[in-house]
């Protein structure tokens, strides 16, 4: 089995706002579920990657980062367990078109399990977010096309199963609608929420946590919108075994997006 942890960690905020306590909460969740891979969105180089509680620093004893040379501009990183996996190749690609601070992007990693030599591709992505006009929906559809093109190129070159995780900024109850997500389902992407025998109907996104008197963020609202996903792609997709949305107090306080956890037969 392999396990993936995905979360938009809400790093796109003023540089003066400390995210340290939220990064630590995320780390406790990761320690408990012991994923093979961690994929993040809004892992902002100016906030989430700064200070002694920088995300890459608190993970470094167990996890290495794919495309490490891009760390200072990569908002959508992929981390992998260095004891189990070997990095074969990786890359980073900001989406063309509408893109705020170049945070809307793709990071991909080709990884080989050390014990068996079996490969897998892990992708972290974040689509365009605004919903003011039709051009915003068109931009998300362009994000879909760019992601599909990359997945096809990876499969042709490496012949590996592909797992995609991230914030697609559209879906159930979302103000952006759900056309891009539904388009993906017609183009070879499969949502493991619907495919895993153990799954949930819990949404993924909720109101922002707020600071308490001690300066720590606390979240109490349950998610009411789904815009975050773990998907597989291609004819040789891995079989999803379990899909979870974490909603304990730590998860709700860590971001406005709940963590997703996906287990796969491997």
Write the layout of secondary structure elements.
Layout: E1 2-8, H1 20-33, E2 37-41, H2 55-59, E3 63-65, E4 78-81, E5 85-94, E6 105-113, E7 119-126, H3 134-158, E8 162-167, H4 179-185, E9 189-191, H5 192-195, E10 210-211, E11 217-218, E12 228-233, E13 240-245, H6 249-254, E14 260-264
Parallel strand pairs: 1-2, 7-8
Antiparallel strand pairs: 1-14, 2-4, 3-4, 5-6, 6-7, 8-12, 9-12, 10-11, 13-14
Structure notes:
It is built from six helices and 14 strands. The chain has helices at 20-33, 55-59, 134-158, 179-185, 192-195, 249-254, and strands spanning 2-8, 37-41, 63-65, 78-81, 85-94, 105-113, 119-126, 162-167, 189-191, 210-211, 217-218, 228-233, 240-245, 260-264. The strands form three sheets. Strands 3-4-2-1-14-13 form a six-stranded mixed β-sheet. Helix 3 runs parallel beside helix 4 (179-185). The longest helix is centred in the middle third of the chain and has 25 residues, at 134-158. The termini are close together.
Entry keywords:
266 residues, alpha+beta, 6-stranded mixed β-sheet, 6 helices, 29% strand
- Read across the widest sheet, the strand sequence of neighbours is 3-4-2-1-14-13
Structural class given helices, strands, pairing? alpha+beta
- Give the overall shape, derived from the CA principal axes: globular
Specify the oligomeric state.
Answer: single chain
Helix content: 10-25%
Task: List the helices and strands in order.
Answer: EHEHEEEEEHEHEHEEEEHE
Strand % is 25-35%
Terminal CA distance: 5 Å
Low-confidence stretches are none
Average pLDDT, all residues = 96
| Largest sheet, strands/sense/barrel | 6 strands, mixed
Count of alpha and pi helical runs: 6
- Radius of gyration from CA coordinates: 17 Å
The number of strands is: 14
């Amino acid at each position: 089995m392999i396990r993936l942890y995905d979360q938009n960690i809400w790093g796109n905020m003023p540089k003066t706002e400390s995210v340290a306590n939220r990064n630590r909460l995320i780390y406790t969740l990761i320690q408990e579920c012991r994923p093979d891979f961690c994929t993040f969105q809004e892992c902002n180089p100016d906030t989430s990657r700064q200070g002694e509680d920088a995300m890459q620093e608190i993970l470094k004893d167990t996890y290495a980062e794919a495309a490490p040379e891009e760390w200072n501009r990569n908002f959508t990183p992929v981390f992998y367990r260095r004891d189990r996996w070997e990095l074969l190749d990786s890359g980073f690609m900001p989406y063309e078109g509408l893109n705020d601070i170049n945070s809307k992007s793709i990071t991909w990693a080709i990884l080989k399990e050390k014990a068996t030599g079996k490969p897998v591709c892990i992708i972290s992505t974040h689509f365009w977010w605004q919903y003011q006009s039709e051009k915003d929906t068109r931009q998300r559809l362009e994000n879909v096309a760019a992601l599909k093109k990359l997945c096809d190129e990876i499969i042709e070159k490496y012949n590996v199963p592909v797992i995609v995780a991230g914030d697609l900024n559209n879906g159930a109850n979302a103000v952006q609608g759900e056309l891009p997500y539904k388009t993906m389902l017609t183009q070879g992407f499969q949502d493991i929420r619907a495919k895993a025998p153990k799954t949930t109907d819990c949404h993924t996104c909720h109101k922002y946590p707020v600071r308490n008197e001690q300066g720590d963020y606390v979240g109490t609202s349950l998610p009411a919108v789904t815009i975050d996903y773990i998907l597989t792609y291609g004819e040789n997709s891995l079989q999803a075994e379990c899909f979870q949305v974490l909603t304990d107090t730590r998860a709700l306080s860590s971001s406005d997006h709940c963590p997703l956890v996906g287990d796969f037969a491997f």
